[in-house]
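Priority: low. Protein: peptidoglycan glycosyltransferase. Input follows.
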Amino acid sequence: MKRPTGTPKRTGRSPVADKRNQPPASAPSKVRRKTGKRGRQTRKGNVLLRGIAGTVSLIWRVLWGSMWRLAMVMVLIMGAATAYYYSGLPEPEDLFDARARGSVTMLDRNGKVFAWRGETFGTVNSDQIAPVLKHSVIATEDRRFYGHFGVSPRGIAGAVKINLAEGRGPLEGNGGSTITQQVAKLLCLGESFDPIRWENEAEFEQDCRVSSLWRKVKEVPFAFALEAKYSKDDILNIYMNRSYLGAGARGFEAASQRYFNKPASDVNAAESAMLAGLLKAPSYFAPTANLERSQGRAGLVLDLMHEQGYLDDEQFAEAKAHPAVLSQAAAERAGGYFADWVMDTGPGFLTSETTEDVTLKTTFDQRIQKAAEQALKRIFDEKVKDGSKAEAAVVIMSADGAVRAMIGGRDTTVNGAFNRAIQAKRQTGSSFKPFVYAAALEAGYSPSDIVQDGPLTIRIPGGKPWSPKNYTRRYYGSVTLTDALKRSLNTATIRLQEAVGRDAVRRVAHDFGIVSNLTTSPSLGLGASEATLLELTGAYAGIRNGGTSVAPYGLIELNIRGDEQPLMGQLGGFGERVVSQRAAGQLIYMLQQVVQSGTGTRAKLGDRPVAGKTGTTSSYRDAWFVGFTEQYVAGVWMGYDDNTPLSGVTGGGLPTEIWQAVMSDIHEGLPVLPLSTVSPDGSGIIVSSGGNTPKVITSGSPDDPLAAALAGAMQDAESRQQGEDQGGRVVTAPTEVTGNAPQNEGSSTSSSSDDALSRALNGILGGN
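Result:
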């Protein structure tokens, strides 16, 4: 067969070419893994481990996806909340004053601050704050204040750790809050006080400060909003103006004035540390509550300031060596009872309920108050046994009713406490007797007129006969009115009262200022009715100034802070005439004899003329002494709050000694002036002559001591002569029941004065 000729047609690859393109024989080809039916590679290893790993991977992918989505949602919510709070924030200055009500600042008669009521406040900006004060706050409350954006996770974590370590809940105790978060809390997260929802502002603030997880969560966006809206200095200003720092001081300016009597721009390192230390617990660490405790807290603040570089070694040593002390006014805390009384006498909308900051100028005298407090404490320390619950009250005023000092109890450092000088109504005992004699003198009787002192029985319609007896259970027969008052004779006083008429006595006492209900029974003259110490002292002031009543007062002027024109003027002072100058002058002379040689001899002040009267009620439940000099009128009460009888105490004892100690101290350095009644036109000094007509010694000055001394000498001589001759009129009481004849002077009844049972039967009142 013939072979085909020509170039054969190539199909496919050339075997030669294939050989040329083949890889080297030394390069072995990879062995393929076996695959399953669907071409997947078959994996080797533990099936269980592969399952676990796959599950973990799946969970992680799910969690991661959820977490970033949740985080995104939280960021959006936080941003929305921050924007919401941001939109409602006002200018920073509008947030400085958080008070719903204003404050009352009280000035004494010399214009010096002595007391505050309500929450005092003073606006202060960053440029008005001493740098050391700002540093002390930052070092104490938030050392990273200028480095965070309102929240410090580091601080919160540290606080939680401390709380758990000390066995508390994670949010109990230390909160780790920044200053910004504390401002958010002070602002109550933007919520305003609602009087319908909260009973008072204190309850509202307490609710705002309740720590909870939800409140902590809400603080975060509010803090962010504060940081976005205000500068760091603005936030610090809000914090330093709104923070409560104890003793009624709101903000650092008010606290600096309250404790140190200086503005916040002038405080030193030690004072700054004390103020910053109050932020932890204002009432507990307040220096007015416990100065030593407050100084200890300030020492810890100084340590922090030194550690953080705010104080160098020299400044630190100086502050440690000289801790802060209170100003004199803050340390003495004088006048708490007086301040409470003034707040009660003024209109509520301008005092206790004021929405403005008010300034009151008062009659208060810090020197007199301090002297009275020291004298009272000295007498109780020296004369009263330890542990005694006996109380005392003191009121000191000028003759026109201007109250200069007031003590409402033995504890003189309290505010808002029970004030025994104005709130305790007690039986007045024999301290009421001068009003019986005032009514008699006004009716025309003379100090030298004669009254019988002896057994007496008065029939009371519809009741049992009443037989008063003298305190000593002794009777003195025929005595002058002067002697009857000097010796505080009960039967003689009642005879005089019944002769003059009880209605006349009640009128005189009421018009002089005893506004409490006065009994209509015969025991009126022995002080069976109740009165306050302020009432009784004011009534004696009416006697002292010549028979014109006075209304005790403490307020001179009331101003809204910033206004020059006062809203109110003086509340009280001279009133209407009650008895004539003749009667008042005679009564003053008789009251002088009480101190010179009667039941009140312990009240003597050397050669200084003194007039006054003792008083003791039945069963010795109350003891009094009220008296006056030319300069001051003072009253002292002593007793138990629960009416427990005083043990061996009468008006002529401890109360008189307290009065003498108080008046001795407050008269130190004052001139010795004669006691007299000055006529209104100043033409002369009226002195009772012992007769029906007064003698007037005219002088160039109504305070002429020579004229007063001459008049007094003449009156003494006349009174003694008339007493010896018993030439005065004899007082006969129409209600007198004849029976036992009066006993001779110095004799006593069959009952012993030492017999407790006899004393208990000594009538309704046996005052001395």
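The longest strand covers residues 391-397. DSSP finds 25 helices and 23 strands in the chain.
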